[in-house]
Amino acid sequence: MRASWDCGLQARAQRAAGERSSLRPERSSLGPASLLDVKEHPRVVIIDGTNSLYRAFFAIPKLRAADGTPTNAAYGFVTMLRKVIREEAPDYLLVVFDARGKNFRHQLYPAYKATRDAQPEELSAQIPIARELVEAYQIPILEVAGFEADDVIATLVRRAPPEAQIAIVSTDKDLMQLVSGRVVLLDGMKDRRYDEHEVEERFGVPPSQLLDLRALAGDPSDNIPGVAGIGPKGAAELIRRWGDLENLLAHAGEVASKRAREALGQQAEQARLSKRLATLRSDVPLPQGLEAAARREPDLARLRALFERLGFSRLLEGLGSEAANDVAAGATLVRRIEALGELDALIAELRALPGIALAGVFGDAPPMGSGPVGLAFALGPERAAYLPLAGENLLASGLAPAEVVSRLRGLFEGARALPWSARETKPLQVWLAEQGLELPAPAFDCELAVQLLDPSGSRTLEALASQQLGTALRSWDEIAGRGAKARPASEIPIEQAAAWAGAQACAARGLEEPLARELAETGMDALYRSAELPLTRVLARMERAGVRIDEAALGRLSRDFSGQLAQLEEQIYALAGERFLISSPKQLQQLLFEKLKLPAIKKTKTGYSTDEDVLEQLASQHNLPLQILAHRRLSKLKNTYVDALPPLVNPRTGRIHPTFHQLGAATGRLSATHPNVQNIPIRSPDGLRIREAFVPAEGCRLLSADYSQVELRILAHYSGDESLIEAFQRGEDVHLRTAAEVAGIAPEAVSAEQRARAKAVNFGIIYGSSAFGLANQLGIASAEAQATIDAYFARYRGVRRFLDETIAEARREGFVRTVLGRRRYLPDLSSRNRALKNAAERMAVNSVIQGSEADLIKKAMVEVDADLEAAGLRSRMILQVHDELVFEVPEREVAELRRRIPERMQAVLPLRVPLVVDVGVGSNWREAH
Fold first, then answer.
1. How far apart are CA 688 and CA 708, in angstroms?
2. Which CATH number is 333-521's, of 3.30.420.10, 1.20.120.1200, 3.90.550.10, 3.40.50.300?
3. Which residues are within 8 A (CB) of 164 and not within 5 positions of it... i.e. 6 or more apart?
4. The model's pTM
5. On the CB side of 505, how many CA atoms lie within 13 Å of its CA?
């Protein structure tokens, strides 16, 4: 059987190219041509050049040409431009830039845009480059003195024939007022399209009412004042109620909110001014119209010279397909492997490559639950092969996946092993190891790199592929659907699975170089190479190993918890004087705040809050909130762990297999799902009883290795505080010493209460607790809590200095660094919202401490795993929870691991204070810890 090619994209491209060539008029010049002569519904694309270039500057990491010229914005801009041409297939295309200098809005309001920061010099330097690129594509550029690009675009939209379909490429909110049945706003970076429904969903009003909303809410980015005290949400409610600004002002006295009513009465003219400032002019005198924007072929010679000068090597590779009639440029062509001979040919072809980039079609199922239905291998920038493994995606020969993997073995093992990479490597490592092929540590993991570079999650591989490669990657959700309606991977047609996986594999190959460059530029390459990348292999082993649970013990515990819950319910009903649905926030609100008249502490969208923090504060006034808390906590343990763990037992292994998420938190700490072992309480008796159900295999013991007071040791290292360092170097009780030094008494005179207070302060410093928070925790007055904090800082001046310097550096740099160079970006440090700014300052300190803790435990996991492997020991790491590592250890290796594990963990990072690891061994997790 011969190899078949997935030619859906090719055929679609050829059809589109044929259609366009037959409909496009002669374009040898930019002379007039009637839109009606081209198509019944001509496609018009207007690119907001200023907005697009600005977004590209901040989205793309710093790039420079050989002569040092900054090029990141220009590169992002041109890849967006190529993508728009390819996917939108416009008949008419033009780019609009803001003109230099002030415009008519500054005459209306001199403070217009006065609060904006100056444009970065490196961005300004790239505007002429972007214009050169647009001109090389033979696309007209429009800019009109005295007007903004938005006004020019509004005028073009008004002048366009009613039958034209218009896409405006921009993320500017001002332009959303132009959206209509024939006009959409396109986010060229994130592939999001705003139609009338999307605009209304985002702002709460349709595009026709956006101006009235802006008149009330204003716009801080443009310094449009709006009406003080009315935000976007409140503005939307008012406009929905009254229709438009003038009608609202005429009925201002009828507005229910006193604050809004008074503000409207006092600031009516300011609202009208704001509306005028936000209104787009549609009467701009244009030097040329849409007629001059008919698509033309790019000047390939000029583009080639520009790409060479700017160092755009990847764009140079695909320059031969830049012609306007080639809409398949960048589309991945995928060859399906359907016979053993084709598989052998694929292996030979892969052997000739410098490395392997692959992707698996897993869907959302964890690899231990079900394997991929197919694997894709990148063969070139836009060419891949797909190897089917299951269902419709099964190799025609009927070879079992394990046999297929066996044939691939030589690519990954031995002296001729090739480096390998993928979008996400851990699932592949888990599954392939289950088939008998344990891969070496990957050369690159794209998803991991992106998450490390942007812990906030705002950047996606789909967006990066669009920006860096000009490739439109589809997410898995787009293929399979979301939520309950999502199809399993095995039900996805083979053509779709192959196309998706092939594009993923090619993107993994193409993105490796730019992501690696950005890791190096941000100083995180060493962290990535020494800790994060090798950790994927460690976590894959842990997920395969899993952990054994005592299902009988959990069954007994479930019955016990059910009895306790029943007792609690009767106590709650007695205190309430009625029976009600305890899990219903609405019924609880009525009971607490209407019937019992307890003070409402916090308001939410659905009424007054009944969350844990509120109930804890109310517990001092009535016993009912305390019992509700006890019921919630016990019910959560029962539902989340006691009853949920047995169904997670893998029938083949007889164990549960948690999935570990390597960058599950912005600080870099691990998280886990199926189940979330990180959240099993360790200090509550009920949580400890759950840990008793985690047991070792026959002939083994569980060993727990836990870093002692690691957060405070990291604080001592960073602060350089002599007293803290001395306490740890002497092996003293640091909380006892803190209590003694703050109170000015001998350590032996410190009471248990004083030590508890000192402990709360020590950890409160790390977590950014305020006097109010400390007062709530200790049950003391805020003034007393503040005095305690002041006394602490008076004694530990190094800690105070560390906090101040960390926050100052974070403000200056926009991010904080950990001990291994991990970054966390904190944009809210420059926020004008005091609450957001204060929260960001607390996060700055917390991220340095907890992020360094994550560095430490991850490095320890990598080194300990390598040590166990090198020593040929059968012991294996099975769990990681916060600062603790749990091992399943054969009886005969217990003594060896008691010595070896702490030695290795304590030597991972050289700090100013010694690291201490507590080791315990037991017949269950509770005993071991």
1. 19
2. 3.30.420.10
3. 35, 41, 42, 43, 44, 92, 182, 290
4. 0.68
5. 32
| d(C-alpha 664, C-alpha 452), whole Å | 11
Domain 548-654: give its CATH code: 1.20.1060.10
Strand partners, 96: 48, 142
- Cross-strand bridge partners of residue 751: none
| Residue 544 parent element (H or E) | helix 533-545
CB-CB contact of 194 with 179 (8 Å): yes
| Dist. CA 21–CA 17, nearest whole Å | 6
Report d(CA 577, CA 618) in Å as an integer.
18
The token duo for 879 is: 């769990």
Q: Please name the helix (run of DSSP H) or strand (run of DSSP E) that holds residue 707, with its range, or none.
A: strand 700-707
| Helix and strand element counts for the chain (H, E) | 39, 26
What does the pLDDT read at residue 11? 34
Structure tokens given for 588: 């609880």
- CATH class of the domain defined by 714-839: mainly alpha
CA distance 425 to 499: 19
What are 615-673's pLDDT values in tens digits?
Answer: 888 888 889 999 999 999 999 999 999 999 999 999 999 999 999 999 878 889 999 98
Task: Give the C-alpha separation, 228 to 887, whole Å.
Answer: 59
> Which DSSP letter does residue 537 get?
H
Q: How far apart are CA 593 and CA 636, in angstroms?
A: 24
Residue 619 near residue 626, CB atoms below 8 Å: yes
pLDDT digits (tens, 9 = 90+) for 187-224: 866 667 888 888 888 888 889 888 888 888 888 777 78
CA distances from 488 to 273, 278, 436, 505 (A): 55, 47, 25, 20
Q: In whole numbers, what is the pLDDT of the chain averaged over residues?
A: 85
Tokens of 74: 């220009």
Q: What is the CATH number of domain 4-293?
A: 3.40.50.1010
Domain with CATH 1.20.1060.10 in the chain: 548-654
> DSSP of 209-248, one letter per residue?
GHHHHHHHH-BTTTTB---TT--HHHHHHHHHHHSSHHHH
111: tokens are 């403070």
Residues whose CB is less than 8 angstroms from the CB of residue 250 and which lie 6 or more positions away in sequence, other chains included = none
Residue type, 188: G
Q: Which long-range contacts (CB under 8 A, 24 or more apart) does 148-151 make?
A: 148/98, 148/99, 148/103, 148/105, 149/48, 149/49, 149/50, 149/51, 149/96, 149/97, 149/98, 150/48, 150/174, 150/175, 150/280, 151/103, 151/280, 151/281, 151/282, 151/284
Judge contact between 17 and 323, C-beta under 8 A: no
Q: By C-alpha distance, which of 592, 678, 683, 583 is closest to 631?
A: 583
